[in-house]
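Input for the complex:
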Amino acid sequence: MGRTSDARERILTAATDLFSLRSYGSIGVAEICAQAGVPKGSFYHFFESKQALALEIIDLQWGSQRGRWQRVLDGDGSLVGRLKELFAFTVEVQNLSLSEAGVVCGCIFGNLNLELSAGDDPMRERLRAIFDEQVHMIRRSIEAAQALGDVPAIDARGAAKSIVAQIEGTVMFAKLFNDPGQLDELWANSLRLLMVSEAQEV
Amino acid sequence: MGRTSDARERILTAATDLFSLRSYGSIGVAEICAQAGVPKGSFYHFFESKQALALEIIDLQWGSQRGRWQRVLDGDGSLVGRLKELFAFTVEVQNLSLSEAGVVCGCIFGNLNLELSAGDDPMRERLRAIFDEQVHMIRRSIEAAQALGDVPAIDARGAAKSIVAQIEGTVMFAKLFNDPGQLDELWANSLRLLMVSEAQEV
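Predicted:
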């Protein structure tokens, strides 16, 4: 049994690990508490419900991922090059999951989304906001690249959405085949969605 | 309580409906039997486990979807036109789900995949085989279109994979936003992945 003072933190860590590896629906509060080494009674001292805990984990994960995305998209080099770096980050996350946990965990937002039921409205709203924000961030980069003539005058929002969908679908393949190599062609495919030829890539 | 003779059928129907609407992990044998109007004891007369039932449902669903895909891909008109029809079918399935069940259910294979845990090996194998077969079917169509000069000489297998990933990612958006309209741009995006201009579409 750990110190009470870090019990909340340990519940968050244990649940993040469990939600990355198994389905949300299959994991109960008892299992989270057992893995965290925290008595079940104290769970409800910190979190109203498993859903409240999941919402906090979603916010923490997206907060961290958004920060990384922002740094990459605001970085040096051509905008197309920055998008390429964003995808390298996606591959890195899945490689890390494979080497640390032995499995490609996929995208926690995509995993949770596909498990959603009609009753999961707060979680659905949060996930919608995250995907909207991802599309918005990539859209802004595409528009900036269009202003420089690096990307043709296609619908930037539609292209950004298609790129996020391509990431999610390809990460799903990486999870299914437990192979981050499935992501190898993500970059070339995204260039096609942007109608940028690979030779043109700067 | 229905007749014993159709109990197996009713379990399959009830479970298919439940798995389309909620996560696999959140649905137990008791709920499936209650919805089917079948005593829980008789479940194990027909199925060894919930997983065995799920595998049979996966096979039935893919058997039906594959037949439809095959008819569309072997149909008349240009190969690009047939692919377009394939996507129209995807949109139709999600529209039907929305009008009949009130929710966009997404892709049952994608939903189950993102719920998979390390212990779900038989299901993982089945889903891998299905996605491999989907890629193979689209690849064959692309190669035939390339032979006619309708699609440029890109890597057909890679392009087919990117299209299946695009379908899965976009269907995930449709599920998240409960809006089949999310699929509106799927066709234009797939043409880009094939490097076929919309003007060129025949």
